[in-house]
Amino acid sequence: MSASVHLSRAGKRLAFLSLLAIVLWLPYLPFVPYSVVGNVNVAAEYALVAVSLVVLVGWVGQISLGHAALVGVGAYITGLAMGGLHVGFPVSLLWGAAGGMVVAVVLGAVALRVRGLYLAVATLIFGWVGQEFLFRQAWFTRHSSVTAAPVGKWDTIFYWNWPDRKVFYYAAWATVALAVYLMANLRDSKTGRAFFAVRGSEAAAASVGIDVVRTKLAAFAVSGLLAGAAGTLILVGQQAVTPEAFSVDKSLFFLAVAVVGGLSSLGGAVAASLLFAFINEAFFRVRALEGWLTVVPAVLLAAALLLYRGGLARLPDDVAPWLRSARRRLDPVLEPVVVGFNRVADGLAAWLRAHANRLRGRLPTGERSAAVVVKRAGPVTTLLSRLTGGLVRAPRPVVRTEPPLDLVPPGVAEEQGPGASITALPVGRLAADTGSVTGVLPFDKMPRQPVVMAADRDERRVVLGVESLTAGFGGLVANDALSLTVCDGEVVGLIGPNGSGKTTLLNAVTGFVPVTAGRIELFGQDVTDLPPHHRAQLGLGRTFQRVRLFGQLSLFDNLLVATHQHNPTGILSHLAVTPGSLAAEAEARRQVQRVVRLLDLRDVAHTPVRDLPLAVQRIVELGRALVTGAKLVLLDEPASGLDATETARLVELIRYVRSLGVAVLVVEHDVKMVSDVSDYLYVLERGRLLAEGPAFLVAMDEAVIAAYLGRTAGAGA
Questions:
Q1: How confident is the model at residue 457 (pLDDT cuts 50, 70, 90)?
Q2: How far apart are CA 591 and CA 430, in angstroms?
Q3: Cα angle at 713 between 707 and 715, to 5 degrees?
Q4: 471 Cβ partners below 8 Å, 6+ apart?
Q5: What CATH architecture does domain 460-709 belong to?
Q6: Which residue intervals of the chain bear CATH 3.40.50.300?
């Protein structure tokens, strides 16, 4: 068996250009029937709707069963613009997209009052209202039949006759390509991570400063814009639409396309759209299959849900091993073909480089090194650079020297002033590589600054003040007139038997449980009525009793989500990948990289968090709170599920966090653990404050012993 053969670099470039040429000239290839061009155009329409569903359902988790109505809104508004206002295509795309976006935002503002199944029902009702009422109003649908006027001058290269399927092919797929490009930019940005965070856990997303409602509305807006643009393509491509084209059944069909492609995958959405277009063509060609077309989407949807979760987007990873094995067996046959193709490609590349050198030789001596320098690097720039021998090139990358590792939450050193005890802390390489996910995390060996606090607790700055707090849910009072304080630089423990109201207190402080009476102050500001994300923006971080990480994201991206409130860029800059958004992204990644190094998680930084052990997940959750720059962190039973060794490491990590100037409030069942780490201790029983004071004194309190052990301090065992 011969060694595996591969395409050369020039061969890969030539193969890519050949494929690109086929895509560009597909409508005019002699062996492509006219009906195929029509179905490929329909695939573009499906793809745009599927991409809109990927954003809304796959990325944010907001189920839409009435999406076809948004497509219909875009189609009919396009008809009004083209037929009533004489707006030409493709400008009318903007009208359809804007109409879909506005209606989607209105729908979202109403539907987001409910969640889960009720949200799906709300969108289903919207789809039914569109089909049975809105799309049957004469004032709205009177221009349901339009013909796009040609653009340009006859017999010139700039003449575009849109009613021609072959010409419309370019408009439809250019729109899809632009949409996929913009959505890919969005997915890998601050906004995209916020989308995935909201899907993973709304509470955790709010705890790092993400406005959940605003994020959902943004997703509805983007999804509606794409759906409205798809409606424009449908109307222009088919030249006439009816209400039945946007029925509830059609909404389910569109959802099936997105699911079959892979509900979170942009490429899968496009692939599934082409698959359904191919099925349409096959049923058109084979008369024996007539009548079964409506069954196919249901069968494919069931297969994707029951047998092949992940859809077509999962296919490359599953097929890759089989392809490698098949290629090894076919190497003796393919080798002459590949070698010949490489020779042709290398010869063509050499000719292009020689032509570029001749062009340089004609330049004046001082300008022979001249080149066209584009704004930033990318795959297209790389391709052009290689094909032109360097006449087109990207700017040389700037090599940055990583600054000393100083994990000081943003604003801490500045606020404390020049006399602060906590300053930038260059800790260098903090932990040796262990080669194991659960290896030793030597937090006890990390250099720490001594925390200087006033001897009298009353003289310390209060970062959290809870006064006469009463909170509960469902008529049950979980906290009854509770008062406690956490001061700057302290670790405060909160203990109590099960059902004593500890987690409810943390939820009330962070804004997840409404307060019936009392007052909550953060850093001197009354936050009793503020939503959770506003409290997080003030400098409040937390972990949860049950770990709440964002399962679709890697460890690194989970920490990147926590930079949300410190990233000033917006959704438009993320779509366009502006220099400002790139700079903010680079700074966020540098900050997260420092935390990853601090916690010695580099070996698993790009591992999905759902695949990590519980002990590591709890460390990641605490790290996420640190990345936010929180000056007060609430830990809700952080040692739950950990063994003695892991708990000891957690204690050292909490002490290290305290040494960075971060106040900590720990809720825990493990009395020994919380006593060891705390400067001050509160004890709750049945929603009321039972005892408070230094940890060593509270541990000897008879009422506390009775609450935990059911006996007094002097009683026998």
A1: confident
A2: 16
A3: 105
A4: 477, 478, 479, 504, 505, 507, 508, 513, 514, 515, 516, 518
A5: 3-Layer(aba) Sandwich (3.40)
A6: 460-709
